[in-house]
């Protein structure tokens, strides 16, 4: 390896370690650490991507790494040392990195930090033993279990078999899904070498550079999980309709509705996140009115024909993409979201025109953020009518009470899974 590339790899490993420690020790989400002044900020784009891949893979397979490391440790090491051991173990056994380089790099990381330098010898000894393990030992390990606070809730909600399937989906990670601007999934699949899914998305297998895919520069598609594209598809915005996208960032649903010809207002509370919506709209040559405001305080002179509310939630349906979530959050941090979701549903209904329709969705696996919210909304507003979804791609196992859909990561397991989502439609009386 040439010297500049080697230095870049060293910086990527160090940044990955900083990300892992921040998640595990400070309970911070990786998305919070990706901005300016974060561990990734000084890196070149290629090294930044490598650091993110290393951190994500380590968090995704941490349970397996701990199982491998346990026989070689008399007692759990200090958290900073444990993070180094986990990173190197996953890099070797999951990522296929050369053992010599990964072990030496881990020892160098230990020596570079006063908190870990005294245990550099332990790092070296343990990882040399890990490096001698046959690949079959790693491959035979079961998928890492979800943390107890989340596993127990999902077990109660969906059953043990579903939880095991969800954990397998998390360990497998997520493919890349694209939404075509013109709706022609077949043509986009042919152009990109992907597969057209029944729902209208295009799925790309393997690791690819997004910006190098055909059509990126022309803005004819955008990255969006197949499940995340369904709320806007089910809303079915029509040309000329006045549509509101509440909690709009990063803008995939806004772009879907704008591409359908609707007059879209996109609202989000975050300036930084709304800047991403603006960038995405510019790249795809689509237009929407952008509003930075608190949805609970904001009002409009005219009511909307349709509203899509993708409410703030635990995001537990996206763990296969964001394995930091279960470590950075716990049950206590999720509970304040439940009353917020109820308040946002009520606010959205107040902004809806008579006869208008509301899609409420969350990327959550918790019934408290889906089924229970819908039932409570119908109790508070008995004049509402649930919208029956009749799209031909809806599978029977997705349907749940009040005409809603419940999607889980273990669905579509044979073709790469999907994010977990709850989607419900409500119509206001005319």
Automatic annotation (TrEMBL):
The active site is at residue 363. CDD domains: AdoMet_MTases (cd02440). Keywords: Methyltransferase, RNA-binding, S-adenosyl-L-methionine, Transferase. InterPro entries: MeTrfase_RsmB-F_NOP2_cat, MeTrfase_RsmB-F_NOP2_dom, NusB-like_sf, NusB_RsmB_TIM44, RCMT, RsmB/NOL1/NOP2-like_CS, SAM-dependent_MTases_sf. The keyword Calcium does not apply. Pfam families: Methyltr_RsmB-F (PF01189), NusB (PF01029). One of its GO terms (biological process) is methylation. GO terms for molecular function: methyltransferase activity. The keyword RNA-binding applies. Residues 150-429 form the SAM-dependent MTase RsmB/NOP-type domain. S-adenosyl-L-methionine binds at residues 247-253, 268, 294, 310. Belongs to the class I-like SAM-binding methyltransferase superfamily. RsmB/NOP family. This is 16S rRNA methyltransferase. It comes from Rhodovulum viride.
């Amino acid at each position: 390896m040439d010297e500049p590339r080697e230095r870049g790899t060293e910086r990527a490993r160090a940044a990955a370690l900083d990300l892992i420690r921040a998640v595990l020790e400070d309970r911070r989400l990786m998305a919070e650490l990706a901005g300016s002044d974060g561990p990734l900020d000084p890196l070149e784009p290629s090294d930044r991507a490598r650091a993110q891949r290393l951190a994500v893979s380590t968090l995704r397979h941490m349970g397996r790494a701990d199982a491998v490391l346990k026989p070689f440790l008399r007692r759990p090491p200090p958290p900073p040392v444990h993070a180094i051991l986990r990173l190197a173990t996953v890099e070797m056994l999951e990522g296929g990195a050369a053992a010599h380089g990964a072990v030496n790099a881990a020892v160098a990381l230990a020596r570079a930090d006063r908190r870990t330098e005294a245990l550099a010898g332990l790092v070296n000894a343990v990882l040399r033993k890990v490096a001698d393990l046959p690949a079959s030992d790693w491959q035979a390990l079961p998928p890492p279990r979800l943390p107890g606070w989340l596993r127990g809730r999902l077990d109660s909600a969906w059953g043990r078999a579903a939880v095991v399937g969800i954990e397998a989906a998390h360990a497998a990670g997520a493919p890349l899904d694209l939404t075509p601007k013109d709706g022609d999934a077949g043509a986009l699949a042919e152009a990109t070498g992907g597969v057209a899914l029944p729902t209208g998305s295009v799925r790309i297998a393997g690791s690819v550079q997004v910006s190098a895919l055909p059509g990126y520069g022309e803005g004819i598609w955008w990255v969006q999980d197949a499940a995340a594209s369904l709320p806007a598809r089910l809303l079915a915005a029509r040309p000329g309709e006045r549509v509101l996208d509440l909690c709009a960032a990063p803008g995939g649903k806004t772009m879907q509705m704008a591409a359908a010809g609707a007059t879209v207002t996109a609202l989000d509370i975050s300036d930084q996140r709304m800047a991403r919506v603006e960038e995405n709209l510019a790249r795809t040559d689509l237009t929407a009115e952008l509003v930075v405001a608190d949805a609970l305080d904001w009002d409009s002179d005219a009511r909307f024909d349709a509203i899509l509310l993708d409410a703030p939630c635990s995001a537990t349906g996206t763990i296969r993409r964001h394995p930091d979530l279960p470590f950075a959050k716990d049950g206590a941090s999720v509970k304040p979201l439940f009353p917020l979701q109820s308040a946002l549903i009520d606010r959205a209904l107040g902004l809806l025109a008579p006869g208008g329709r509301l899609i409420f969705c969350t990327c959550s696996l918790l019934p408290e953020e889906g089924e229970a919210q819908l039932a409570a909304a119908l109790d508070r507003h008995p004049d509402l009518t649930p919208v029956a979804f009749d799209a031909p791609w809806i599978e029977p196992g997705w349907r749940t009470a009040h005409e809603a859909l419940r999607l889980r990561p273990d669905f579509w397991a044979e073709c790469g899974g999907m994010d977990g989502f709850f989607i419900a439609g409500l119509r206001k009386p005319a």
